[in-house]
Amino acid sequence: MSTTSITPDEIAQVLLAGERNRTEVAQFSASHPDLDVRTAYAAQRAFVQAKLDAGEQLVGYKLGLTSRNKQRAMGVDCPLYGRVTSSMLATYGDPIPFDRFIHPRVESEIAFLLKQDVTAPATVSSVLAATDVVFGAVDVLDSRYEGFKFTLEDVVADNASAGAFYLGPVARPATELRLDLLGCIVRVDGEVTMTAAGAAVMGHPAAAVAWLANQLALEGESLKAGQLIFSGGVTAPVPVVPGGSVTFEFDGLGVIEVAGA
Ligand code: OOG
Questions:
Q1: How far apart are the first and last CA of the chain?
Q2: How many Cβ atoms are within 10 Å of 230's Cβ, its own excluded?
Q3: pLDDT single digits (tens) 94-108
Q4: Does any ligand 1 atom lie closer than 6 A to the CB of residue 143?
Q5: Domain formed by 8-259, architecture
Q6: GO CC annotation: what is one (predicted)?
Q7: CA 118–ligand 1 middle distance (angstroms)
Q8: Complex confidence, ipTM
């Protein structure tokens, strides 16, 4: 039982209003230093439940802060997860829907489409065995917090900054690829700015999915066949601005260009 001086519902309502009105909100951890991770996940559940009540579907989960690249960039050193709902799926080739976001940033990920449920205790091999295909993917983050700054508790409540997701044009069985060696090149306006391999995420992107399955089991929840799971950023996030272009090239999984139209 949590004793935090703000309820999950109160937190969710503030975040939902921030998202709806595209206005930054103050970090809860500043005004409520007793906010704990458990309450933050309960707030996330309430935040996502409001979307489901409005007719969206749960399509899967996203991981966050699973690579040192990301942990260093954000100053938070613990992985987390969020929930992905139907309105977050962007169409390949479409520009960023700026009218939905406050201050979007983009980063490269690996997405897993599951063909079987993943039960705990999960491992890299059990995740790979349960995976139908993998995609290169882009996570469009849009923290609802002022200045994109947060603690672990804040960002957990904010559904891991989930904004939108692009899937790349190529789907391949995970067993055809070495996901830990899978390279990704990030180009901003044509210039290479970052490179990384899949191993940046917990040594192997499937290890992040296994971590998620094991975390969810503690909550009585599990990963299901048909769900899409996003690994967490392999590279650090890049702000995307109207008129700019960020390109993500994945070894064997094609190219995703995210244009700020
Ligand atoms: C928090 C969410 C992190 C990732 O892939 O590392 C995340 C953030 O950086 O806004 O999704």
A1: 47
A2: 30
A3: 998 888 999 999 999
A4: yes
A5: Alpha-Beta Complex (3.90)
A6: cytoplasm
A7: 23
A8: 0.96
